[in-house]
Design goal:
The chain is α+β, with helices and mostly antiparallel strands. 51% of the residues lie in helices and 13% in strands. The chain has 12 helices and 10 strands. The strands form 2 sheets. It has an 8-stranded mixed sheet, with helices on both faces. A two-stranded antiparallel sheet has the order 1-2. The chain is elongated.
Length: 351
């Protein structure tokens, strides 16, 4: 090596990286100069064909601290600032360093997750005096309840069971849907049982369709006994009405009890078995999914034609027609022949 100054004559040396009046521009200039110095030094080494270690040490030792730090952080210069490394070797060392950091971070996250599981496992098992200690929260304000449910949903990791006798206004439904979709994205399982009358609410169909598409099973029952949530078989949220006898306030109870949750879950399962799948969760069929005969039946259903007239039009028996109607309503996920005609018209299957 020639021993000459490693930067272009007349160019002032940069200050510390990221420091100085120029801010980011100072950092960019220092980085550019570090790259320039590195390339210049490598060219001198390769041009001579012989590596003069003593001269290399002297020249590297004369580099400004900011340049040395930039090169060292990228493994292009060793920690003692006495020897350059090739880009290939520097890249290999950077990858190994990154791999070690990722492995360490993964081990730390795993330890934290196991610690959380251990603590959560202790929450519902705390008992006093040989009896289960039941923590009860009461909310009169639904907005406060929603905030509390968001906290509980964040802790829920396995299962959510829900009963709905009614639904709130569309704005609340939209906010609830966003939270529910985030919850399902974590991989938790969910089922919702809905009273048939509740389906009439504005925005309810879109809400339930979105939940169904996200993987939550939805069923409909003629009546549902409770407005309720059961989280992880440990926490139960129940809406209570006004008691006309004692004038007690209406509101919602949050019950932290394994035994109570087990009892409410039995009520849910009994009602769930008697309910029917929510028709909106069926796949929407197109015209190609129906034969010409089925589309003709749909068109006649849409205008309210009777079975006798439809069978005569098709040239078949009423028994054959009933089998055909069953196939069509199952395809559409409709609860009745009239609903099948309406849904077919809505989907554009009939003219």
């Amino acid at each position: 090596m020639s021993g000459e100054e490693p930067r272009t004559s007349g160019r002032p040396g940069p200050g510390p990286l990221g420091v100085g009046g120029a801010g980011e521009s100072c950092t960019a200039r220092a980085a550019a100069e570090a790259r320039e110095v590195y390339v210049s030094l490598v060219r001198r080494i390769t041009a001579s064909g012989v590596r003069d270690t003593a001269q290399e040490v002297r020249e590297l030792g004369s580099l400004p601290a900011a340049l040395s730090r930039w090169l060292t952080e990228r493994h292009l210069l060793d920690q003692r600032h006495t020897r350059l490394s090739s880009p290939e070797r520097a890249l290999r060392e950077l990858l190994l360093e990154h791999e070690r950091e990722v492995r360490t971070a993964g081990e730390t996250l795993l330890r934290s997750a196991l610690a959380i599981d251990d603590v959560l496992g202790l929450l519902p098992t705390t008992r006093l005096g040989g009896r289960e200690s039941v923590q009860v929260e009461f909310f009169e304000d639904r907005e406060e309840l929603r905030r509390r449910l968001e906290e509980l949903d964040a802790l829920s990791r396995v299962e959510l069971l829900a009963m709905r006798t009614t639904f709130p206004e569309p704005a609340v439904l939209r906010a609830s849907l966003a939270n529910d979709l985030r919850w399902t994205a974590q991989g938790s399982a969910g089922r919702m049982l809905v009273a048939a009358q509740a389906l009439r609410g504005h925005g309810v169909g879109h809400f339930l369709d979105a939940l169904s598409e996200a993987g939550i099973a939805v069923r409909v029952a003629p009546t549902v006994p409770l407005y309720m949530n059961i989280l992880d078989r440990a926490v139960t949220v129940v809406a209570i009405g006004r008691d006309d006898d004692d004038g007690g306030p209406a509101g919602d109870l949050v019950l932290h009890s394994l035994e109570l949750a087990r009892c409410f879950r039995q009520v849910f399962e009994h009602c769930w078995l008697a309910a029917r799948p929510y028709p909106g969760c069926r796949r929407a069929h197109g015209a190609a999914d129906f034969s010409p005969q089925e589309r003709e039946v749909l068109a006649l259903l849409a205008v309210g034609a009777k079975d006798e007239a439809i069978a005569r039009r098709l040239g078949c028996s009423e028994r054959t027609l009933r089998r055909l109607l069953t196939q069509i309503t199952e395809k559409l996920g409709a609860p009745s022949r009239f609903a099948a005609g309406v849904r077919a018209a809505r989907l554009g299957l009939v003219d």
